[in-house]
Amino acid sequence: MTLLLALYSLAFSILRPITKILAFFSPKIAGQIKGRPDVSRIARDLAMTRAQYRDCAVFFCSSAGEFEQALPIISRLQASKDTYVQVIFFSQSGLDYVKARGESIPCMLMPLSDSIWQWGWLFSALLPTLTCVIRHELWPGFLSIARRFGRLYLVDASLSQGEKNSLLWGLVRRRLLQEFDHIFAVSKSDYDYFTVTCGLPKSMITVTSDTKYDRVVERARARPDLVANLRDTLQHLTPQGTQHRLILGSAYIDEIELLISAISARKELLSSWQVIIVPHQLTISNIDMISTKIENQGFRPVRYGSMDRLTQPTNFIIVDKMGMLAEIYGTADAALIGGALHHQVHNVLEPASHGLAIAFGPFYKNSQEAIHLVDAKLATVVKTGREFSDWWQNLEQNGKLRRQIMLDATHKLTGAADLIIATWRQQMMDRS
Q: What domains, with CATH codes, occur in the chain?
């Protein structure tokens, strides 16, 4: 334990009570610290639960996205019945996501303080065999303690876009990366970054692709009954003669305006299509605004939460419940993915894993998957209502062939979770 790390932890310990005082005056600060555990109080119960298992694996995730990436690995570990899994979130939104989906995996927020003493309480209770950081969350106190209790891994590691412009963070990150026993990189370019730019040993890095590919494909296959039930639920509100379904996934107001522009020019598109809108923000005010815009076009949108009380078919359904988007894609034929008309595209893998025809706006370079789909001519970039309506109108041609090509392209990206687990087991054997 270095003096610098001790001083770092002491600074956090001093700031901790100050932060709690500031929370009384700032709702934003209060929201950040709400629900963060006092690990000295929960350590005893955690230790008793963990003691029922031979091994323990800790997963540190920023939020819901990283949790989804961890799930293929978690499911494989839990299948053996002898490993206790503890997920730690940085963000409250991750914990909210888990609760909304009814996940049974033990989850908690990280402590308010990144001190070696707070983490020491937690890891002394869990005694992990291994600790796994998903993509990032490189906290010095956490890393220092985690590596003392078991093997420490970085999974789905890649060079973030922001780091390219930050010399200081690059230097700090390179130092923190040295704490890991092994790093699983997403691509060859990431391998080159870690070995050449960061100077890490080549034996320390393995290229595995990304576990998010495993997750989206496994999730698409996992609950065909859930997708079938959802399709049946939607069917009683589907107009007579409607054969296809379009999803606006993670939609912002920009995607709504694009939709309105398309149907204003070609109302005949709705003769065989039902549209389901899944807003990025599921606030009442945002859903009300979307409803009003659709109503102003002469249509009657229905909210998913009210469907059980309705019998009149409709061309438009607005989803007002969290955690349903992946399964809703399974009921559809095509998707317009939100975000790329103004900032950056959201998850394109979920609709791709169901074989959907995909379109999104021009700001998609944040997503390697979106770039790949565009380059392979499996996704279409649309900027105007006319471009969107042209794409939409042509979708009924060769639908089955297009769906199979998309499914094949997505499945070729999988396999990271199995490779990671195999590497872990080999390293454990070599160590023993």
A: 22-209+415-431 (3.40.50.11720), 218-411 (3.40.50.2000)
